[in-house]
Amino acid sequence: MLKPLFICDYPCATCDENDRTICTTCWTSEDTPKYLMTYPELGTASCMPYCDFGFTSNGKENLMCEACDVSCANCDDNGTPNDKFECIECSATHTFRKVLTNFCLEECTEGLFISTDKVCSECQDPCLGCVSNQDKCTSCHPKTSETDVWNLFQDMCVTECPESYVSMADVRGSGFCKKCNSPCLTCGDRPENCETCDSSAPFLYQERCYNSCPRGSIPLPTSATC
């Protein structure tokens, strides 16, 4: 089948072979509408001075308009790739804006906290997660070396847990400080493995604390150990 020979309607540079009003490319000179907007629901495509609201050329050389990302109600058509994620306005489903960026989020994800109304700011290292401010930690970054482990303790990340606490690992490789089980005063690798005892049960025997040494054992003369 031979293509019909006709000139496309301005401002189309090329057009559908059966309809001269449906543009497939646009003229690219400065004084012509050069952005190609397609309207699938209408079965049409037109050359426009710029993309419609909610659309961007997304840095493509052919200036074919595509929808902004779902996070944006409208985005910045600045001629760079992936500018469909650069929101001028956030969408109804992504109402939080990441601080100092044009990225919109459904919520403040891990590593971010709500700093002001609808703004997510970054937590301060070594916090992995935080709340209310940048250094009120809810979780810590994983260990930075074989010996250096961050442990969560009272909204802070510390490398060493205080006395009467033991470092416990979480699934991500960081840790948290857990209080030793009473009557342990200090404990080893587990909260129940006592190293020293408090005054309520002062005698230590096989990592447990007792009011008096269990049957078959006697207190050592120089320490409260059976």
What does the model show?
It is a single chain. The protein has three domains: 12-88, no CATH class; 126-179, no CATH class; 182-226, no CATH class. It is built from no helices and 22 strands. The chain has a four-stranded mixed sheet with strand order 10-9-12-11, with no helix packed on it. A four-stranded mixed sheet has the order 16-15-18-17, with no helix packed on it. The chain has strands spanning 12-16, 19-26, 35-39, 44-48, 55-56, 66-67, 72-75, 87-90, 96-98, 104-105, 112-116, 119-122, 127-130, 137-140, 151-153, 156-158, 165-169, 175-179, 184-187, 194-197, 203-205, 208-210. Helix content is 0%, strand content 38%. The protein is an all-beta fold and 226 residues long. It starts with 11 loop residues before the first strand and ends in a 16-residue tail after the last strand. Residues 1-5 have low confidence and may be disordered. A hairpin with a 5-residue loop joins strand 17 (165-169) and strand 18 (175-179).
What is the mean predicted local confidence, pLDDT? 89
Q: What strand line-up does the widest sheet have? A: 10-9-12-11
Report the order of strands and helices: EEEEEEEEEEEEEEEEEEEEEE
Main pleated sheet: 4 strands, mixed
Radius of gyration: 33 Å
State the total count of DSSP E strands.
22
What is the overall silhouette? rod-shaped
Tell me what portion of residues adopts beta-strand conformation: 35-45%
Separation of the first and last Cα atoms? 102 Å
Number of domains: 3
